[in-house]
């Protein structure tokens, strides 16, 4: 048990070192030697856990994806009451906010390099598709129940997910809304809801 704990701590040390180097040099500019130097571990120790910088990146991304999957599962989209659509959308947005905050360095790496690094871009496709699919299910339930106006739910899911990503990107990359990011997310959702929500009769 003690040995397993030591291995886990060593692996985390490598991942933390990699995040720091990625932030400084970017994914393409990072080598195994850079990560080893930053972690202050032996090169052989690195290879006990990872065989390449790409494997390190994949491990960091996997941590994010596991958290996102857990939040979406907890949200229980299929069981949502259509009358709570706005609150559910707000909960979804704030769950993403929490994940991005917990993995800030890795998310910034994704945002700044996914257009220039095909390997990173490929890793983000899963997240984008999952987010859009989740929002689309929520929208379909709202439309079917008569709570929301009848629009193309796929198109609407692109608009909502794209808006969320942009607001969160502005926050992480440029420091906008640092003091009130949650209220800005709620404001964005309110603006959106004004366009799609039907008035109660």
Quick summary:
This protein has 201 residues and is mainly alpha-helical.
Mean residue pLDDT: 84
Structural class: mainly alpha
Spell the H/E element sequence: HHHHHHHHH
Largest sheet: none
**Cα gyration radius (Å):** 20 Å
Straight-line distance between termini: 62 Å
How many H/I helices? 9
Q: State the CATH architecture of the largest domain.
A: Orthogonal Bundle
CATH topology name of the largest domain, in short, is: Tetracycline Repressor, domain 2
- Strand fraction: under 5%
State the CATH superfamily name of the largest domain: Tetracycline Repressor, domain 2
* Count of domains: 2
Number-wise, the strands total 0
The CATH class of the largest domain turns out to be Mainly Alpha
Keywords: DNA-binding
Protein name: Transcriptional regulator, TetR family
DNA-binding region: 31-50
Pfam families: TetR_N (PF00440)
